[in-house]
Write a structure and sequence with these properties.
Layout lengths: L17 H58 L8 E2 L2 E13 L1 H11 L10 H5 L3 E3 L2 E3 L5 E17 L7
Antiparallel strand pairs: 1-2, 2-5, 3-4, 4-5
């Protein structure tokens, strides 16, 4: 039967005098210098990569903007404000944005909805208590809520099919 030879244990370096400590510090300085060089090289590569990416994607983004603008112009001519064709569709979402004036709003919420307060208004929960009436926020009791202006915003998303899914 063959004998399995065990690899001799690798001895670790031990610093037991000033000369060895000095040598270790010199080696540490070399390692840190190499790390600094690598970090500088990486920064240069990162900048080159960023510049390359921007130069490669700029015309693509311009094309994307161009086609979205064309589709948007067409979408606006549609009675339902949507475009749905085999190659893709638009989706339209209406969202309301509430501009808050905490100095006016906080006293109102403290009085009428104290359970919705921490140190600040629990906005997601409080917003459920509100109704928009021509840009004015009205609560469930029919009271105008001071410190809020409702602004309706519209956003359009473009959803092209994947290139392989073309008809």
């Amino acid at each position: 039967m063959d004998e399995i030879k065990e690899a001799p244990e690798k001895q670790t370096f031990v610093i037991d005098d000033d000369n060895k400590a000095n040598w270790a510090f010199r080696k540490l300085a070399e390692v840190k210098q190499e790390l600094d060089i690598k970090a500088q090289q990486k920064a240069g590569f990162d900048e080159q990569t960023k510049e390359w990416y921007e130069s490669e994607t700029k015309p693509l983004k311009e094309s994307q903007d161009y086609f979205e603008q064309l589709i948007e112009q067409y979408r606006q001519t549609q009675p339902d404000g949507k475009v749905k064709v085999p190659a893709g569709y638009t989706s339209l979402r209406h969202a309301k944005q509430y501009q808050r004036e905490p100095s006016k709003l906080l006293p109102f919420v403290e009085k009428n909805y104290p359970d919705l307060l921490k140190k600040d208004i629990k906005w997601a929960d409080f917003k459920k208590q509100l109704t928009d009436y021509d840009g004015v926020a009205i609560d469930q009791n029919g009271e105008k809520v001071p410190g809020i202006t409702v602004i309706e915003k519209e956003s359009v998303s473009y959803h092209p099919n994947k290139v392989g899914d073309q008809l």
